[in-house]
């Protein structure tokens, strides 16, 4: 009988903890941008949509994470406007640009990082968004800003939380 109660107690505690963890997760479903984030860790500080552009900015709630934010921006390409080339990005001063085959489910992505004097780092991912015919119709830009941290465990927690957002990111027309 004691084993039954112990197993029941473990099951109840597991359900409570699991429900609490999932209760903090929120699926953002904007006009074009879809992602999931932990409401305990991030808050949406900007949510702007027009006919041609969608932008969402999440900021970290934990003050010890410093200036941590994720900006997701999707813009339609006008007729005749091409997707930027590697040379366009490489022309920026003090910037090393890399092209990745895939990133977070997107292909042919450019990335670059800026180290700022105020101990912050900005990392940019620029990805083409293809239509059903395989033509590029939109440009996705994800900007991640973080403050350098001495606490490796907190930095890993922060980076994992950002990765969770990026791993669920979708662009939908």
DSSP strand content: 35-45%
**CATH architecture term:** 3-Layer(aba) Sandwich
The CATH top-level class label? Alpha Beta
User: Would you report the number of β strands?
Assistant: 10
Strand line-up of the largest beta sheet:
3-4-5-9-8-7-6
Number of domains: 1
Structural class: alpha+beta
Question: Gist?
Answer:
It contains three helices and ten strands, in the order αβββββαββββαβ.
Structural key phrases:
single chain, 173 residues, seven-stranded antiparallel β-sheet, three-stranded antiparallel β-sheet, 3 helices, 10 strands, 45% strand, globular
How do the helices and strands line up, and which of them pair or pack?
Blueprint: H1 2-23, E1 25-29, E2 33-38, E3 42-49, E4 53-60, E5 69-76, H2 86-90, E6 97-103, E7 106-115, E8 120-130, E9 136-147, H3 152-168, E10 170-171
Antiparallel strand pairs: 1-2, 2-10, 3-4, 4-5, 5-9, 6-7, 7-8, 8-9
Describe the protein in words.
The protein is α+β, with helices and mostly antiparallel strands and 173 residues long. It has a single domain, classed as Protein Transport Mog1p, Chain A, CATH 3.40.1000. The chain is 25% helix and 45% strand. The protein is built from three helices and ten strands. The protein has helices at residues 2-23, 86-90, 152-168; strands spanning 25-29, 33-38, 42-49, 53-60, 69-76, 97-103, 106-115, 120-130, 136-147, 170-171. The strands form two sheets. It has a seven-stranded antiparallel sheet. A three-stranded antiparallel sheet has the order 1-2-10. A hairpin with a 4-residue loop joins strand 7 and strand 8 (120-130). The longest helix is centred in the first third of the chain and has 22 residues, at 2-23. The radius of gyration is 20 Å and the shape is globular. The chain starts with a helix and ends with a strand. The model is unreliable at 4-9 and 11-23 (pLDDT under 50).
């Amino acid at each position: 009988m004691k084993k039954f109660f112990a197993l029941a107690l473990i099951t109840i505690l597991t359900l409570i903890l699991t429900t609490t963890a999932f209760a903090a997760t929120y699926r953002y479903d904007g006009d074009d941008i879809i992602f999931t984030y932990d409401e305990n860790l991030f808050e949406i500080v900007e949510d702007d949509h027009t006919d041609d552009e969608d932008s969402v900015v999440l900021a970290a709630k934990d003050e010890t994470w410093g200036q941590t934010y994720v900006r997701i921006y999707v813009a339609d390409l006008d007729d005749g406007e091409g997707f930027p080339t590697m040379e366009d990005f490489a022309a920026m001063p003090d910037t090393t640009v890399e092209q990745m085959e895939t990133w977070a489910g997107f292909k042919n992505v450019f990335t670059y990082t800026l180290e700022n004097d105020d101990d912050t780092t900005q990392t940019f991912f620029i990805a083409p968004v293809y239509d059903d015919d395989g033509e590029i119709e939109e440009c996705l830009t994800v900007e991640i800003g973080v403050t350098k941290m001495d606490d490796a465990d907190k930095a890993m927690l922060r980076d994992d939380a950002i990765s969770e957002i990026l791993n669920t990111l979708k662009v939908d027309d």
